[in-house]
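Problem: given the chain below (383 residues), write out its structure.
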Amino acid sequence: MAEAKRFELLGEKILHQTVNPELLVYCPSMDLIALGSTDQQVLIYRLNGQRVYGAAQKVNTLRVEKITWKPNGQLLAIAWSDGSVRLVGAESTKVVHHFSTNSDGQEFSGVTCMGWSSNTIGRRVEGKSSKLVPDTLKDIFGDESEFSAGKAVLNLPRDLTLLDIEPSLPKLSVLPAGGTSDEAFSSRSSLDALFRPFDPEDNDMADVMVVGTKEGNIHLSIYDSFVVGSFKAPVIAQRRPAYLVLCTSHKLYSTYALLMKTTESEERVYFVPMDLRFLSASSEYLSILASRSTALENLLRYISQIQNLLLAEWKSTQELPSRFLRNINETLAEQDNRDIVQALYHSVATGHTFPAVREWLVDELTERVRFPILLFMIFGLSS
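Solution.
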């Protein structure tokens, strides 16, 4: 009798937090494991047990509902109990993009399922009379070279369209973080995740995310940030809509298999096929259009963040002199019934400095206010 094969142990790790067994996903393309703990943290580990990072929600009352990897492993989607879905990079906790699965004012009970897969664009199934229709499941899922043979045909307009000059351009600078600023631009890793060059190999693929909620809503989005929309589940039993518990698809076809239930205790499971016809009917250039549109959207976010930082810095430079001047003016008005302009003119004319002014210059200003600002206070404010 042949000896049974055993699994090979690749690594072992003892964690300080208790892991939720329902929040455990593996990324084969990056060899990373994402898991959710009972204290509502998402931890990323390598196969050797090395911790990459940990992500937690700023609001302690929220719970981690679902986690899933992007098919290429470059992003991790985290669904929280308030209906928000945040996309974080594989090597950084910075949020690349976020959206909400529930509408304002509507009741929300939680996320029940979240799937992320890649599907071929523009592939149409031939008619029954065509000889290209495979006869068996092995022909359908076994050899994909027959369906991709047309890709080898030379096409100069297509090759020129897919030509990407972005790697030749200088990289954007990292912006300082703090306050209400967008932290997605505060590190090099998050910037690289946002402005990733277009891969021509992914030109005929579309990344589709399906999110199901307890109320029976199904939320669709493609290419990370393009929201297709939400719709109610087509199954209604006992006057309540069914909710999504599992979804899957094959990358060669635009049809998704959905499994739904009405209650957790119900044993009956509903199978619903969902065909995304816009994938099979779309042009082969949908990927590059979505990629460039996403890059433009992120660039506009970057420019807007620069404007916000410049405005905050300008307000700070304007408020800093007035704040220090207000403090010393109040002190001089109480002591000698004068202001800082008169006191500084007195120091320039006589060489004598009032004790309050000396203390203000030495103790409060020090290195925070430089010589140009002093000149501005002396000569600019007197006009």
